[in-house]
Amino acid sequence: MARGNDYSIVLTGQAGMGVQTVEQLLMQVFKLAGFHIFATKEYMSRVRGGMNSTLIRVGAKPVRACVDRIDILIPLNKGGIRHVEKRLSPDTLILAEKEIFEDRADFGQLNIIDIPFTQIATGLGNKIYSSVVAVGVLAALFDIELSVLSDFITKRFAGKDEAIVSGNLAAARAGFEHGKRIAAEKHLQFPLRPDYAAKSRMLVSGVEALGLGAVAGGCNFIGAYPMSPSTGLLQFLAKHADTFGIVVEQAEDEIAGMNMAIGAWYAGARAVASTSGGGFALMTEGLSLAGMIESPLVVHIAQRPGPATGLPTRTEQGDLELALYAGHGDFPRAILAPGSVEEAFSLMRQAFDMADKTQSPVFVLSDQYLVDTYYTVERFDVSGCKTSPQFIKSFREYQRYALADNGLSPRAVPGYGDGLVVVDSDEHDQQGHITEDLDLRVKMVDKRLKKFAFLEQAAIAPTLWPNLNYAKLVICWGSTQPVVEEAIARLGRVDVAMLHCGQVWPIHPAVADYARRAESVICIEGNAAGQFAKLLKLHKNIKIDHQILKYNGLQFSVEEVMEKLSGII
């Protein structure tokens, strides 16, 4: 069985069956053996039961995108095959216990190898070891040294009872030996050549990259209430709070989390409020408060399908207009949407500087797919990650809202200097006191809106790939970027290029310049209304000739984008 540069392994099973344990073990073992890794998951909103799947791509070269193709399937229960059967092909190798197929009429048509995972594990004393047996089998099939697997398991379970460590080692060894036997008997070959440079790479998830970017941006406060799929950022920063001096506040609700973040900025901290779409709906009054008092603010929204609770553990790009239009009244903001793990780090870091310099809210839009995706990346460059506070030392005649010509009044924080720092959620005068002077009201609104020019000047340029020699331009934003890039590469069309927008508001002027060069423009996004396409038309007069939209709760796959593009171009 030879595919070339990468293989797609899919694990299916109910919540509570150890799918995530297998995922974590396999990712680390493959990386230690010198392979590049991409992994993502889809799961139901149940603590136990339901049906979930995890995709792991193992490559001799870097892999960063989701595929439908399944080369090896490991179903852990009877419903596992049916859950992904549309993705199966005659070439799919299924490693499973024969009992799983007792009620299937197409048993003889499937490429199945019976592996008694549970029987092997039970023979070792506990069927819970069956997931580690599966890891051992796969390690053997990919010709990974048993010592690599054993060393990692020893480290992974360090600190546990000795019986747990020895039991897992025995399970890995038994699975490995079984895998070697079936590889010899069935003449199975997975000819991937390790790239030992992969060992020095980081294996990072999207949410970990967002957390590291926040730390690099000087974040020292997070206010949040747990809500899938944003909770991972709260957990990550809490885990590393002592190391980096971060105050982590799990608030009683999203309203409190937002107001705490605004209060932290007022006191001189760099704060993020993190949530998902339904939680942000509660935060919008606080967002307007930030607009009125001209407070810097970073808001992370991990998007999921709505309206209401929608599909709480699935993915979508449906909150762009929510972030853009939320809050009553007119005030400027910026919206960033990282497309990759690398951009999750870099754009989250830049969000804090952008917010601080412009005294405005800056959104970072991720989604379930991005936060739950892992792959190997080069180590992040932190050499330029020095933060410098943008506030001044106040003086006796200090006016927080002085009518500065450029719209940026000097910002001070309480207790630093001789002046008073007065803020008020009502319209206010230059000192910060409530006013109903209508002429002054107009001046204050105009002053606040002048900051939009700074946000436009600071806008992050889009990324064009592979070159300028295109007739068809595919515009995408957020987490669709690696999928679109691989799809275009595999199509092999020299007249097609991708334009990825990591900042979706304000829209960088280069987007319109690139669009004008194209004979036709295609926009790909994960929502039902084509939210970004509407912004491109409304604000940049870009004519979108074709749209590729998806909103069933799943991410785009490379094959899906290839098929859709082929039908258009």
Describe the model:
The chain is of the alpha/beta class. The protein folds into 4 domains: 6-200, 3-Layer(aba) Sandwich (Pyruvate-ferredoxin Oxidoreductase, domain 3); 204-377, Rossmann fold, CATH 3.40.50.970; 392-457, no CATH class; 463-568, Rossmann fold (3-Layer(aba) Sandwich), CATH 3.40.50. The protein has an 8-stranded mixed beta sheet. A 7-stranded mixed beta sheet has the order 9-8-10-11-13-12-20, with helices on both faces. It has a 5-stranded mixed beta sheet with strand order 17-19-18-21-22, with helices on both faces. Helix 18 (531-540) links the parallel strand 21 and strand 22. The mean pLDDT is 94.
Number of domains: 4
Query: For this structure, what is the CATH homologous superfamily of the largest domain?
Result: Pyruvate-ferredoxin oxidoreductase, PFOR, domain III
Low-pLDDT stretches: none
Strand proportion: 15-25%
The chain-level structural class is alpha/beta
Remind me, CATH topology of the largest domain? Pyruvate-ferredoxin Oxidoreductase, domain 3
Helix content: 25-40%
Which sequence of strands runs across the widest sheet?
6-5-4-1-3-2-14-7
Key attributes of the depicted protein:
eight-stranded mixed beta sheet; seven-stranded mixed beta sheet; Pyruvate-ferredoxin Oxidoreductase, domain 3; Rossmann fold; alpha/beta; 20% strand; 569 residues
Question: Any chance you could write out the topology, listing elements then pairs?
Answer:
Layout: E1 6-15, H1 19-32, E2 36-42, E3 49-59, E4 72-75, H2 79-84, E5 93-96, E6 112-114, H3 117-123, H4 130-141, H5 146-156, H6 162-186, E7 202-205, H7 206-216, E8 221-224, H8 231-239, H9 241-244, E9 247-250, H10 254-266, E10 271-275, H11 277-293, E11 297-303, H12 320-325, E12 334-336, H13 341-358, E13 361-367, H14 368-371, E14 374-377, E15 392-394, E16 412-417, H15 438-457, E17 463-465, E18 472-477, H16 481-491, E19 496-501, E20 503-505, H17 509-516, E21 520-525, H18 531-540, E22 546-549, H19 558-568
Parallel strand pairs: 1-4, 4-5, 5-6, 8-9, 8-10, 10-11, 11-13, 12-13, 15-16, 18-19, 18-21, 21-22
Antiparallel strand pairs: 1-3, 2-3, 2-14, 7-14, 12-20, 17-19
